[in-house]
């Protein structure tokens, strides 16, 4: 009788740990396509309790400013990117922030269109 109870307890605990591991989700907050008619854009987002903020760049020159607060402490980081790819905007900012404000400005690079997206993992 003791062995099935221990096995059942272990399975419940494993299911709880797995559930918490899959609880976080990625969400696209803002995505912008740049072209000849709309060669530049700028936007600002407020994000509550982010774990990771990912900026995806495709054929654009981008400047991003991340300002996060945790209690009375404020962290600010400004970065510029001229190459395509994805960037972590919480790079060099302490974990478990209360809220972050991300400001992004982008200009299309070259004659063809560009793309900028901000994704958040919570």
Give the arrangement of secondary structure elements.
Elements: H1 2-21, E1 26-34, E2 40-48, E3 52-58, E4 60-70, E5 73-81, E6 85-88, E7 99-108, E8 114-121
Antiparallel strand pairs: 1-8, 2-7, 3-6, 3-8, 4-5, 4-7
Order of helices and strands: HEEEEEEEE
Secondary structural class: alpha+beta
Main sheet strand line-up: 1-8-3-6
Low-confidence stretches: none
Number of helices: 1
What is the radius of gyration?
20 Å
**Beta-strand residue percentage:** over 45%
- CATH topology title: Jelly Rolls
Main sheet?
Answer: 4 strands, antiparallel
> What percent of the residues sit in helical stretches (DSSP H or I)?
10-25%
How would you briefly describe this protein structure?
The protein is an alpha+beta fold and 122 residues long.
Structure description:
This protein has one domain: Sandwich (Jelly Rolls), CATH 2.60.120. 16% of the residues lie in helices and 55% in strands. The chain has one helix at 2-21, and strands at 26-34, 40-48, 52-58, 60-70, 73-81, 85-88, 99-108, 114-121. The strands form two sheets. It has a four-stranded antiparallel β-sheet, with no helix packed on it. It has a four-stranded antiparallel β-sheet with strand order 2-7-4-5, with no helix packed on it. A hairpin with a 2-residue loop joins strand 4 and strand 5 (73-81). The model has no long low-confidence stretch (mean pLDDT 85).
């Amino acid at each position: 009788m003791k062995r099935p109870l221990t096995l059942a307890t272990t399975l419940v605990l494993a299911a709880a740990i797995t559930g918490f591991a899959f609880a976080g989700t990625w969400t696209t907050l803002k995505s912008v396509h740049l072209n000849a008619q709309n060669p530049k854009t700028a936007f600002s987002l407020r994000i509550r309790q982010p774990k990771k903020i990912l900026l995806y760049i495709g054929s654009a020159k981008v400047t991003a400013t991340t300002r996060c607060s945790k209690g009375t402490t404020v962290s600010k980081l400004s970065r510029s990117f001229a190459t395509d790819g994805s960037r972590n905007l919480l790079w060099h900012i302490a974990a478990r922030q209360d809220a972050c404000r991300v400001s992004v400005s982008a200009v299309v690079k070259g004659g063809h269109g560009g793309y900028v997206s901000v994704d958040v993992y919570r």
